[in-house]
Amino acid sequence: MRAIIAKRVDSGTPDTSEIRDLAEAAGYTVVGEVTQSRRADPALQIGEGKAEELATKAAETDATTVIFDNRLGPYQTYNLGQLLPEGVEVIDRFTLILEIFGQRAQTRKAQLQVELAELRYELPRAEAKTSLAKRDEHPGFMGLGEYDESRERDIKDQISRIKDELERIEQTEEHRRERRRDSGFDLVALAGYTNAGKSTLLRRMAADLDVDENEDLHRDLESTAESQDKLFTTLGTTTRRADIEPRDVLVTDTVGFISDLPHWLVESFKSTLDSVYRADLVLLVVDVSEPIEEIHEKIVTSHDTLYERNEAPIVTVLNKIDQVSDEELAEKREALSSLAPNPVAVSAREGTNVDALLDRIDDELPDWEEERLVLPMTEDTMSLVSWIHDNANVEDVTYGDDDVLVSFEARPAVISQARSRASELQATAPESA
Fold this sequence. Notes:
Elements: E1 2-9, H1 17-25, E2 29-37, H2 48-61, E3 65-68, H3 74-83, E4 89-92, H4 93-104, H5 108-136, H6 149-182, E5 185-192, H7 198-205, E6 206-212, E7 238-244, E8 247-253, H8 263-268, H9 274-277, E9 281-287, H10 292-306, E10 314-319, H11 326-335, E11 344-345, H12 354-364, E12 369-376, H13 381-391, E13 393-399, E14 403-410, H14 412-428
Parallel strand pairs: 1-2, 1-3, 3-4, 5-8, 5-9, 9-10, 10-11
Antiparallel strand pairs: 6-7, 7-8, 12-14, 13-14
């Protein structure tokens, strides 16, 4: 697929770097670009002269697609299509993002979220086509095809059904998270913009166990959390156990943020962020090699998103320090001190300072508590002792003639559960002679 990039800005110089990255992530080969600085043209988005230049370039490069970094209305899309060579498709930024999401969606949840976003994108266009056709008493809208009021109703019904199914999936995932937490796991979430290196960092932190959101135990380490230099490699969530003794820590990698997303698209993927909102700690990963203005803007936007529903502490991780000098890193640390007063600087690719990050995670997570339980010697006692070994850091076990003394440290939730099970043993234990 050969694509030409087009972008219009009100003023200044158009930056096409991100839309190029997005196009390449979708599998396009960019063979040219057309940019313009002027107010939007209602009919074509760009001026008529630029539109003709775009058509000429599409013919010369044998392009199959024109990708606008601007949002196109159905009227603009149609008019541009009339000017371009036959067979050349016109799409905008948000259609491209949905295309990428569709390519990456592997799980039922991700596929539903893509479908929901597509329907939310289509709904206002269906509503506009219906209202304009009614107003003009016209059987179609500027050659865009017949309008159908039932299509608008169908879209709304489909949106409702998908939201209901996503809610059921989320309830199942929430129950799984609660079981993990009750079993002594601390939950850590990776957040941040796409291509910041979250998946690479997860692979660096992972121990020998992979826990996928769709299965309780999944051991195929190579098929998850791919580390590739492309956008949206991670669309669903991938969870792995991190090696932070004596804790059992599960780290979840989530879909990356991306700039300038419309509300309907963010809303469609909101349930993906539930792994972030329900975590005990959030690691906000940023690419420190980017210009300081971009880093600042991304951290502010990320904070706005995360603090909306998140109560867990947030630790900023400055990734890709292998791509900057010590002097540049120090300057950026200082410039970001008000937003990220105590960040951890790492290179996920090289493994630099990952141990320091693991130590920081241990410091930030809820403190473990110490406990000593005296358990009566019953048929079920060894089962509880084994459970404590699995879910806590056992310091000592002393076996007496009639009881067992267990000293351990663990999360408060594990201690509470151990006390409850110990009380049940006491209640069922036979009285001493």
